[in-house]
Amino acid sequence: MTRRVDGWLLFSALTLLVLGWLMVTSASMEVAGGRYGNPFYFSLRHGIYVLMGLGLGLAILLVPMNWWFDHGFELLMIAFLLLMAVLVPGIGREVNGSSRWIALGIVNLQASEVAKLFMVVYLAGYLVRRLDEVRERWSGFIKPLAVMVFMGLLLIMEPDYGATMVILGSMLGMLFLSGVGMKRFLLLLSATISMAGLIAILQPYRMKRLVTYFDPWAAQFDSGYQLTQALIAFGRGGWSGLGLGNSVQKLFYLPEAHTDFVFAILAEELGLIGALLTLLLYSLVIYRMVAIARRAGDIGLLFHCYVGFGLALVIAAQTFINIGVNTGLLPTKGLTLPFMSYGGSSLLISCVMVAIALRIDLETRVKRQQNSQRRGTYAQS
């Protein structure tokens, strides 16, 4: 019986992990030296996160997909408890005005990262159990919508607008791929876009970001500071970059250089060529995850298929938003770059998502081989 897994997915994900460690080290040395007296403070911690992510990924690879299917509702409840817990004073840890983390020793658990994974698992199980109802009746469509709205409200209260968009966008994609009626889907899409616009204009700081987005240089030393510094980093990088470790913008010019804006530092040090190769690696991760999901769907493993597509959508959406923010394509918001940005929760969950995709691939290969053996047996008989 075959035990192989998708080598291209594994290779691209591991390459991004290593590249991320290098870029976090390069981008954080000056800040870490000035703040903690140790230039490798963030690098060492990120290295521990990488090792933890690899260990957790290996453990998750051993978990059969049936377990996720059977415990989808319980995992959703855990996600809601975590999202509510971060709002409780004394439990939630506030950073830069947002209460998104729960301190767990070496790792600050970001509830929204866990919620992304568990919401995908729950919705995939729901679609398998209620697929006909979702496709044909309003009742099957409204139930997951209510869950999504409640989760979105909790995320906005933190506030975590970026994670809200990633989760809602990914869930919309899963509903669309399940074959939901176009009328209902378009109605939901319109409502989501309207709600996103309303949220953006109700909060003054979000409205300020939108205004700055259209002309960041008009507020270069105010609300447009991060974006203009990121754009300067891209300009300095040119075609081939300044060389690894030679970034100027990381020298206290670009805030959050090792977290939300690590891609700008990568472009400055490795140039357009390095940035495009990095985008190629992300494209390869997403493409292989989609290919794995399609193969699972082709042999009737619908839960595997929906989970695979959902995880690919989450990684694709988060990558697009982060890089869009770095390049000025989207308004500035705090959202990590999967596999690369400094941050334990994001890196661990990214590793878990890849491990689940590899598990889907493994079970799909086993199922296909079993089907082939059955067809051979029938032919002989």
Automatic annotation (TrEMBL):
Localization, UniProt: Cell inner membrane; Cell membrane
Keyword Cytoplasm part of the UniProt annotation: no
Topological relation to the membrane, as annotated: Multi-pass membrane protein
Signal sequence range: none
Presence of the UniProt keyword Transferase in the record: yes
GO biological process, one term: regulation of cell shape
Annotated TM spans: 7-27, 47-68, 75-92, 104-128, 140-157, 163-180, 185-205, 261-287, 299-321, 341-360
Pathway(s) where this gene product acts: Cell wall biogenesis; peptidoglycan biosynthesis
EC number(s) from the headed UniProt entry: 2.4.99.28
Catalytic reactions of this protein: [GlcNAc-(1->4)-Mur2Ac(oyl-L-Ala-gamma-D-Glu-L-Lys-D-Ala-D-Ala)](n)-di-trans,octa-cis-undecaprenyl diphosphate + beta-D-GlcNAc-(1->4)-Mur2Ac(oyl-L-Ala-gamma-D-Glu-L-Lys-D-Ala-D-Ala)-di-trans,octa-cis-undecaprenyl diphosphate = [GlcNAc-(1->4)-Mur2Ac(oyl-L-Ala-gamma-D-Glu-L-Lys-D-Ala-D-Ala)](n+1)-di-trans,octa-cis-undecaprenyl diphosphate + di-trans,octa-cis-undecaprenyl diphosphate + H(+)
Entry keyword set: Cell cycle, Cell division, Cell inner membrane, Cell membrane, Cell shape, Cell wall biogenesis/degradation, Glycosyltransferase, Membrane, Peptidoglycan synthesis, Transferase, Transmembrane, Transmembrane helix
Record GO cellular component, one term: plasma membrane
MF annotations from Gene Ontology: lipid-linked peptidoglycan transporter activity; peptidoglycan glycosyltransferase activity
Enzyme class: transferase
InterPro entries linked to this entry: Cell_cycle_FtsW-rel_CS, FtsW, FtsW/RodA
Function: Peptidoglycan polymerase that is essential for cell division.
Family: Belongs to the SEDS family. FtsW subfamily.
Protein's name according to its UniProt entry: Probable peptidoglycan glycosyltransferase FtsW
Organism: Oceanospirillum multiglobuliferum
Gene name tied to this protein: ftsW
